[in-house]
Amino acid sequence: MIHASSNIDPHGSDTIIRSVPSPVPSSLLAWWFQCGKTEAQQEQHQQQQQQDPLGPTGCLEVIYGIALHYLHETLDHIVLVLLAYSVLCVVLYRVMFHRATGGSRLGRWLVRRSHLPPCSRALLVTAHPDDEVMFFGPTILELRRRQCRVFVLCLSEGNHDRKGAVRRQELWDACESMGVRPEDITLVNATHLQDDPTAEWRAVTIANQLLRQLESLDAELLITFDKEGISGHPNHSAIYYATASLCLSGMIPNNCKVLTLETVNLCRKYLSIFDLPATLLLSTNWVILSWKARRAVQNAMRLHNSQMVWFRKLYIIFSRYMVINSLREINKSDVEFEILDT
């Protein structure tokens, strides 16, 4: 603190300016160390600081100041990176759907909104009612947009909470809202395929159901879960292993391709359209919906009213699977490698 004194200087000056130690601490950390001290202790502490300005408190203050400086710089950089990434995602998404109003040919090639094998008949295999919308909604809408006939095979009626009859009707309502014909929906109600995370679904039983459907429907595309099952549900993974067994034995028809829905990490799972760059860079087959089509999938999911608990309402808002599906085509060599890796 600067103090002005009115004493007369012997050399003729009217005012003497001298420095007086400030009673206010220079930082929050210094104030913390002075709390609870008596006046005598504070005077002694100030004298020690004047004699040794880099004492323990001074060193801590220096370290605190340096850490705070670098923390501010790091946070600034993180904010800038996140902002740039968000702008990139929004621009990509807008360019992708600008093609409907006459976008450039280069833009159409770089950011196609879907990349799926051409087919006229596709079979979607799920474990429970609501899987078809919760995970595969974008794929169903894109196939229907291409005038592909979609068949849905659901291997259980979801009777884990004794709501099997209700969930059966919800399955039909949700599929119809996305353009799937009622006669193209098959629901299996077998004692050995019950909705239960602790129950083991035998791969042979599932494979028989799949093979029967593939032969009767003459499907050109089979779509189901990958080995992680998106949510980690063992019933989902069991369908993949049954499909893999058919691939290994060569029982999948030659004209039928197999696509599995890719499981992503928890962070990507809830990024919605902000997972777009990662999907385009890392996936070979994908579907990205417009914002209007995304609302159609959300409305179809809401038709599964018996499942609308609070965390599923959040899922509908934030999940990428409401707007993005990334799929991987598998064949015999891929399955052999995955089984050996496992």
TrEMBL record:
<dbReference type="InterPro" id="IPR003737">
    <property type="entry name" value="GlcNAc_PI_deacetylase-related"/>
</dbReference>
<dbReference type="GO" id="GO:0005783">
    <property type="term" value="C:endoplasmic reticulum"/>
</dbReference>
<keyword id="KW-1133">Transmembrane helix</keyword>
<keyword id="KW-0812">Transmembrane</keyword>
<protein>
    <recommendedName>
        <fullName>N-acetylglucosaminylphosphatidylinositol deacetylase</fullName>
        <ecNumber>3.5.1.89</ecNumber>
    </recommendedName>
</protein>
<dbReference type="GO" id="GO:0000225">
    <property type="term" value="F:N-acetylglucosaminylphosphatidylinositol deacetylase activity"/>
</dbReference>
<dbReference type="InterPro" id="IPR024078">
    <property type="entry name" value="LmbE-like_dom_sf"/>
</dbReference>
<comment type="similarity">
    <text>Belongs to the PIGL family.</text>
</comment>
<dbReference type="GO" id="GO:0016020">
    <property type="term" value="C:membrane"/>
</dbReference>
<keyword id="KW-0472">Membrane</keyword>
<dbReference type="Pfam" id="PF02585">
    <property type="entry name" value="PIG-L"/>
</dbReference>
<feature type="transmembrane region" description="Helical">
    <location>
        <begin position="78"/>
        <end position="96"/>
    </location>
</feature>
<dbReference type="GO" id="GO:0006506">
    <property type="term" value="P:GPI anchor biosynthetic process"/>
</dbReference>
